[in-house]
Amino acid sequence: MKILIVGGSGYVGSALAQAIITKKNDNDEVYILDIYPPPMLLRKKVTYINLDLTNFNKVHKILKDIEFDVIIHLAAKIKGTPPDVMKVNVMGTVNLLEAIREKNFRLLIAASTAAQLYRNAYYLPIDEKHPITPVTTYGFSKYLMEEVINYYHKVYGLPTLIFRQTNVYGPSPNQKFTVINKFIKQAIDSGEITIYGDGKQVRNFIHIKDLIEYYFRAIYHRNPKILIGETINIGGPQEYSINDIAKIVAEAIFNELGKKVNIKHTPPSMPLTHEIYVFKISLEKAKRLLNYKPKITVEEGIINLIRSLI
User: Fold this and answer.
1) Which of 26, 101, 169, 275 sees the fewest Cβ atoms within 10 Å?
2) Which residues have CB under 8 Å from 288's CB, separation 6+?
């Protein structure tokens, strides 16, 4: 199977590429499309395509002669001016889909966001029909990305699937300091964890190994037709407040390293109206369509990550 990972040099993409390679299926070929080269340990094991999604002519020229079975769209810009974020997340997606519109492939899986789309819950648990209320540029760009993908599915029949993912943590060939990863690094390096705001914000956290297993369940699905046109919540076993996460990290650092960690609060990094305090994700659809439930608890994942870093 030929698998194209768009944004494959990044945090999730490089971990997914490594997992596919480690799976040792001789029929799998991994291609990474990114503006940055993949981490060194992947470079001899994947085919790298140096390409900027915002350049339609180059995207069309390079992709028109290559066939893929599965395309994973992970490329995204999280921070920046609204024009910059929209250019990558929305127009980049349009360029990709337009370039592959007439190709015959098994499935395109696109990564979206759960927390930044749903925000504070109108009802619990939050299923895929919950109202969408983004208030950040990134969240709004992901909403528009989803609309683009659904349009290409409905109008052109592209076999698409959207994963609305919660906050990812855990090790990767290209490590990113998401909330839990950042707290662990701060605790190890300085003995201190910094929380922006009151720490009562609530998030769901998924270990990167569980996330990869969800991708595997879709990539290698025996009947991918049941996934086409769907949007699925993808998350970890449980929700936590940021305060809870900081305490779990601090306790784990003390138990593993004998190091006491101080937790401090600083002013919020965003307006309080943008924060999320009521959040509990429903994973029933993922369980039904992908036959998988996340297995790694936050406590287990944090301890394993600490041990991998020391």
Assistant:
1) 26
2) none
